[in-house]
C-alpha cells in the first residue's frame, strides 16, 4: 500500500500512559486485520504517534452477536489506552463466577469476582468492544480501511512505505504467520461448541453448567440478552470456523437431561452457530526485522479460560510499548516476543486443562465438585489467589 499518511496528534498524557521514549514516533505502521487484536494494536500505536493504517477485509467493522469476558489483565490495557470510562459504561461489571451442576441446576460454589484487585472483570458484547476500540482509533488519527483483503505477494504481503512496520492481527487463518513460521497443522480436540444469545434476564454472574462430557457457560450482556457457549465431546468434525449455522434442536437434545432452568435457557435459542474446537501450537516466531504477528494470528486458544481477546489486548500494549522504547525495530520486536511467548503459552495450557475439568463423569466428578465446594466455603480467596498469575498481570507496568 502507498499514499499520503495523515499526521498524528498525541498528547503527553497518552505518551506517558504507554511509557515511553517515542522511539518510533512517526513510523508508518500497517495492521492487517480489524478485530480486537488489530484495533487495540492500532490504537496503542496511534497513541505513541505512529502513522497507523488498519486493513480489514470485511466491508465494515461488524461482529456477530456474542459476548466476551474481559478479565482484569485485559481491563488494565483498556484503561492504559484511555478507555476506562467508556468500558465502565459499555460493559457489565461481573459479580461472581458460579460453577453449577448442570444435572441438578444447583450451584457447586461461587467465587466473588468483586474481591479481585485491579479494574473490574466485565462482560461485553463483542460489538461494543470493537466499536469502542474503533472510536478510540479514529480519535488517535488511525486510518481504518475496510474491504481491503491483504494477500501475500511473495514474501512481502503488503506494498508498504520504507521503514514501515507490518503487523499481522489477521486471526486464526493468518496470511502473515506462515511467512514467519513452518506450517503447523491444528488438531481437532474432540469437542464442538455452540454459540448463541437469548432474551433472558440474568444477574451479573458467569455460570458454568457442568455435566459429564458437556458444559454450558452463560453470562448476561447489555440489552437483556444472555450469552451462551455450549460445548460437547464429539468424535469428528470437518471445518474450523465460527460461522456454521446449526439447528437449535440439536443443541437442546444434547442437554435434554439437564436441570429445568438450563433447559429453559437453551429452549429460548432460535438461532445458533456451531464450530469444531481445534488446538494450534503457539507460533515459534512472532517477528522478523519489520513484521510481527499477534492475537489469534500468533496464538489461537480454546475458549475455556476466556483469554483469547485478553491476551490480544496484552500483546497490543506490549508491542507498542516495546516499539516506543527501543529505536531499533528488530530489537523492539525481539523484546516483544520475549515478553509475551511464555505467558501466552501458560494461559493456553491452562485453557486446555479446563476443557477436561468441566466434563468429568462418575466418581471423579463427585470428588471434583466436593473439592470446589470446599474451596468456596473454606478458602474462597485461595481460588482467586490461584488465578492471580493470570488476572493480576499488569502489562502496563513493565516492558
Ligand atoms: C465462543 C468464543 C468465546 C470467546 N470468549 C472469549 C472471552 O470471553 N474472553 C476473551 O478474552 N476471549 C474470548 N474468545 C477469544 C477471542 O474472541 C479471540 O481470541 C479474539 O477475538 C481474537 O482476536 P483477533 O483480532 O486476534 O482475531 P479475529 O477476531 O479473528 O480478527 C481477525 C480480523 O482480521 C481480518 N482478516 C483476516 N485475514 C485478513 C486479510 N488477509 N486481510 C485483511 N483482513 C483480514 C478478519 O476479517 C478479522 O476481522 C472467545 C472465542 C470464542 C470462539
Characterise this structure.
The chain is α/β, with parallel strands linked by helices and 399 residues long. The chain has helices at residues 12-18, 36-47, 72-80, 84-90, 126-139, 177-180, 248-254, 260-267, 308-325, 329-358, 362-378, 380-386, 388-391, and strands at 28-32, 51-55, 67-70, 92-93, 96-101, 111-112, 122-125, 143-145, 165-168, 187-198, 205-211, 214-221, 225-233, 244-246, 272-279, 291-293. It folds into two domains: 12-68 and 122-185 and 281-353, 3-Layer(bba) Sandwich (FAD/NAD(P)-binding domain), CATH 3.50.50.60; 187-279, D-Amino Acid Oxidase, Chain A, domain 2 (2-Layer Sandwich), CATH 3.30.9.30. Helix 2 (36-47) packs parallel to helix 5 and helix 11 (362-378) packs across helix 12 (380-386). The model is unreliable at 1-17 (pLDDT under 50). It binds flavin-adenine dinucleotide. Flavin-adenine dinucleotide binds next to helix 2, strand 3, strand 10 and helix 9.
